[in-house]
Amino acid sequence: MAKVYERIADDLRQHIRAGELKPGERLPAETKLAEQYRKSLPTVRQALGVLQAEGLIEKLHGRGNVVRKPRRLVTRTNERHQWEKDRARRSLDVRQQTGATEHDTGLAVSDLVFNAEFSEVEADEDLAEAFGVSAGTRLLERVYRTRYREEEAPFNVSRSRLLYDMAAANPALLDAAHEPWPGGTLNQLHSLGIEVDRVVERITARPPTFEESEELGLTAGVSVIVLRKTCVDTKGRVVEVADVTLPGDRTELEFTTPLDRW
Fold it and tell me: What residues contact 10, with CB distance under 8 A and at least 6 apart?
């Protein structure tokens, strides 16, 4: 049986989803809601906390609880990897027309603001094990942040690593000024003569750090999804390890698994 605060949250949720409470509209004061539902103030605050965790409302200084404008939804499917591989060998004109973020959001290139930061780092024990190299091996770390022009927070924060000496065979890959790279990482690897054979993704969820909450614009109670992507080439070598931190309130992960017929 639903608890009292859950029933209150559900009622308010229905009003929001029905459009009776619109984005930017202020909810009644907490004391008014307590009177309306004939429940205690702590119970009402519990209900509001649920809606905040779902990203439906936010508490703004001087305004109180306000219906939050829905963020652009990102739907990430496992089919995106074949799409990226097919695109990696297309002409420059084709590759420049769209990228993985546009694929996942339905937006156009002109709708996006892109940021890339490159640095040389040493592999710690975790990354050394992931790549199958010695700790201290030089890596090229690329940190990517892409956001919708109408929003302040990025869709995610992606930390992609390549073996530095491998990437250096094409000096253009070491320069963030060449980003966003048409065709993404799979085309970059293609420029090195590398074909990716498979992509392994490991997905976990956890509470965000303070810095992640600030950067991704998360409301209290929203978790982050952490996706580790490992690209393996046709020779069995790990050629990229990326950790992508995604906001749990506007990310969908969709997996389609074809099954052999009997």
Answer: 2
Q: What architecture does CATH give domain 4-67?
A: Orthogonal Bundle (1.10)
Residue 120 burial (10 A CB sphere; 0-12, 13-18, 19+): exposed
Spans of all domains in the chain: 4-67, 74-254
User: How many C-beta atoms lie closer than 10 Å to residue 46's C-beta?
Assistant: 17
> Which architecture, in CATH terms, is 74-254?
3-Layer(aba) Sandwich (3.40)
Supply the pTM of this predicted model.
Answer: 0.83
- Contact between 154 and 180 under an 8 Å Cβ cutoff? The reply is no
pLDDT tens, residue by residue, 174-202: 999 999 999 999 999 999 999 999 999 99
86: left (phi over 0), alpha (psi -120 to 50) or beta: alpha
Is there a contact between 173 and 167 (Cβ–Cβ < 8 Å)? yes
User: pLDDT, tens digit, for every residue of 87-108?
Assistant: 999 999 999 999 999 999 999 9
